[in-house]
Amino acid sequence: MSTYPEEFRYTKDHEWVRLEGDIATVGITDHAQQELGEIVYIDPPKVGARVEQGRMFCSVESVKAANDVFSPVSGEVVEANEPLAKEPEKLNQDPHGAAWLAKIKVSAPEEIGRLMTAAEYFSYIGAET
């Protein structure tokens, strides 16, 4: 289970979030990148965009398919990981680290409590396969 950091929270759509103060760093899980295969394009969210929990806020394309990425929290995008647009393969290499997608100033911190812990997510993806 070490693939899924304990301090993160996870969605059923395979996104992760790490909250530091009122800023949430968001990305897709290792499970998601494995399912997608070789990632070839990322359409990062726009800085200043308002996002809602459970709503699409960016997209990721692989050699297999294009997938929407849903925001695990509501708020405003304050930073996008722009280098990923030029090096999308980094999402396959380090999905829980350097390959985060966005940083969001959280407007509803209570939403974090509705997300899965690492253990719950690990069980969820085990049941999914």
Structural class: alpha+beta
Low-confidence stretches: none
- What is the number of E strands? 9
Instruction: Determine the CATH topology.
Output: OB fold (Dihydrolipoamide Acetyltransferase, E2P)
Strand coverage percent: 25-35%
Percentage of helical residues? Answer: 10-25%
N- to C-terminal distance? 15 Å
Describe the protein.
- The protein has four helices and nine strands, in the order βββαβββββααβα.
- It is of the alpha+beta class.
- It has a single domain (9-109), classed as RNA polymerase II/Efflux pump adaptor protein, barrel-sandwich hybrid domain (OB fold (Dihydrolipoamide Acetyltransferase, E2P), Beta Barrel).
- The protein has a six-stranded antiparallel sheet with strand order 1-2-3-9-8-5.
- β1 (9-10) and β2 (15-20) form a beta hairpin.
- The relative contact order is 0.26.
Keywords for this entry:
6-stranded antiparallel β-sheet; OB fold (Dihydrolipoamide Acetyltransferase, E2P); 129 residues
